[in-house]
Amino acid sequence: MKKKFSLGLTIQYGFAIFFMLLFSLPLLFMISSSFKDPQAIFADVKSWRAFFPVGDVNFDQYLGVFDRLPLWQFLFNSIFISAVVVLLGLFVNSLAGYAIARLKFKGQNIILVGLIATLVIPFETIAMPLLVLVNSLPRVGFENGSFELTTGWLNTYLVQIAPFIAWGFSIFLFVQYFKTIPKELDEAALIDGASFFSIYWRIIVPLAGPAFATSAILSFLAIWNAYLWPVMVVQTEALRTVQVGLDYFWASTSEEGTQWGEIMAYSTLITVPIIIVFVIFQRSFVASVASSGVKG
Amino acid sequence: MVSLNNLNRKLLGQSLKSRSARAGFLFVFPAVSMMLLFLVTPVILAFSLGFTNAKFASPTEPSFIGIENFTEMLSLGQVSVEADPNDENVAYDNLRTYTKPSNASPYAGMQILSESYSADGTQANFTVAGDALFWKSLFNTLVFAAVIAPLQGGLALALALLINSKIRGKVFFRTVYFIPVVTSMVVVSILWIFFYQKDGLANVILDALIPGFEPVSFLTSPDLALPAIIFMSAWQAVGFHMIIWLAGLQTIPAELYEAARVDGANSWQQFRAVTWPGLRTTFVFVLIIISIQAMGVFTQINVMTQGGPLDSTTTFVFHIFREGFRKNDIGYSSALAIVFFVIVVTISAIQRRLTRDKD
């Protein structure tokens, strides 16, 4: 049997491919350019060569940017900060979610209502007062071989981590998910004499994989890509995240002629690993975003 | 025997109740205390600092100044002065006699928001404002939100319908469309700075499509910088909202489409009668989150244009940031943040109301 030619379907493929090019070509350009000298980047811009690593392909731009910047340090900072926020956040928020969804205690409803209310507060509103606040908080510093009590959290890891651990949206997500787990499981464990914490740890957590994945992915993306807050609270180069480091690098070279090759190498280095992780776990990513919509 | 059992149960239940109360309190304590410290306290701080003249890290104690920050922010005035068609400085010099900060005039310290001249050029009409950038940034932000909401929301819906259609390779296309979302805004901004240069990719493509096209430097043009940033922002985020539309599409039962087909509805009629009504809650949600995200636009501005050229891309959050962080004027910045909060809440309340089911 001959397949019928369908005009509608052809148009659909046409659009699908057009959008595929629209969304992928800029990133292909970035990746390809990271292997080229700046002169080659500009020479290639007028042809298809812009999007492919062709011509004199080398790693000079990568070597150059590592030479110029403490990029390993930036990478470590970003990974460390994201990992701590995600891991502590998962624990703190799921524990709170468990209490709200499964336990009975005073003020439970007020807390839930309060949590939902916090979701409407845009971070931009509180960024400046939060800066004033963290600047006046006490901190135990380690200087000259001894601990001392100082004031102000600016230029620390702490200031980039602590404000983002507890997250109303994540708690709400856990509450919703935990409510779908049958209550009989808890009750059976209670009769066996299990503590509430061991019920949370041994029964609830293992059954809530998707909620943990969603919360982890959304908070990781937010922290890894964060910009406004790190720009405000960190001036020390050694504590910069990859995003802020890139912005400073770009701003500092734009006067004396931008090092486009090195900028593309830096951008590729901090983008491609995330894209690879996304492609591997794309089902979970998509489910996370979708659930952020359904719950809203 | 039976009553003893009941008593036992009661006792057990009571101890369980108190254990549950204790555990519940203990388990929410870390999250709730952190949110009180890092979220609720700053909100209270914003609402109190907005009524003071606080400066960041300043040794002098802030003092309460009532609604002065707000009157300065919102004050507007009209000034007409004599002008000379042959010398544009005359009008400005005359205006300055009103707006000089040391003057006793009600317009002292105010800035030019807009200006117009009479037909013969002998009279100049100035609109002056206590904070001209407040109005400009508010306007730019509203334009940004008003353009990007239909653009990005509509494109996202088109992509979702495409993915949801009969084409093969759905997962592949969906993945590619989503990739810019996981790319950071700093990377995207710098990449597009390159594209928007005079010898960049955008000009190369436009040159190929439009005969006789003159290359332009998008980000240094007061007319093109904001549209260029809007387009780039939509490009970066559209995949996110595509996924939300897709989730909405998948909640529509297939039987409804079958019934429509049986009734002889074509694709467009099916969309009007089945798809669009079924996407109602998704529509409200997408509209509200795009608007709120758009109102908060900051990263692209700070990386790409710093609010320029000629303040044409200064957005509200960028203004808050510059007043508070660059000029250390925490009091005024907090007042701006309060206004921002009120605007965002109002916009989402209006959208919710306008899109509510009429029943």
Describe the structure.
The complex is a heterodimer of chains A (296) and B (359). Chain A is mostly helical and 296 residues long. Chain A has 15 helices and two strands. Chain B is mainly alpha-helical and 359 residues long. Chain B folds into two domains: 76-129, no CATH class; 134-354, MetI-like (MetI-like fold). The longest helix of chain B is centred in the N-terminal third of the chain and has 48 residues, at 2-49. The chains are: A mainly alpha (296), B mainly alpha (359). The interface between A and B is large, with 91 and 99 residues.
Keywords:
heterodimer; A: 296 residues; mainly alpha; MetI-like fold; 2 domains; two-stranded antiparallel sheet; 15 helices; 2 strands; globular; B: 359 residues; 14 helices; cell membrane (chain B); ABC_transporter_permease (chain B); transmembrane (chain B); transport (chain B); transmembrane helix (chain B)
Looking at CATH, which topology of the largest domain in chain A would you report?
MetI-like fold
Gap from first CA to last CA of chain A: 48 Å
CATH H level, superfamily name of the largest domain in chain B: MetI-like
- Total beta strand runs of chain A: 2
Large-scale geometry of chain B:
globular
Largest interface between protein chains, with number of residues from each side? A-B, 91 and 99 residues
**Domains of chain B, number:** 2
Helix content of chain B: 55-70%
- Give me the number of helical elements of chain A: 15
Number of domains of chain A: 2
Subcellular location (chain A): Cell membrane
Membrane topology (chain A): Multi-pass membrane protein
InterPro entries (chain A): MetI-like (IPR000515), MetI-like_sf (IPR035906)
Pfam families (chain A): BPD_transp_1
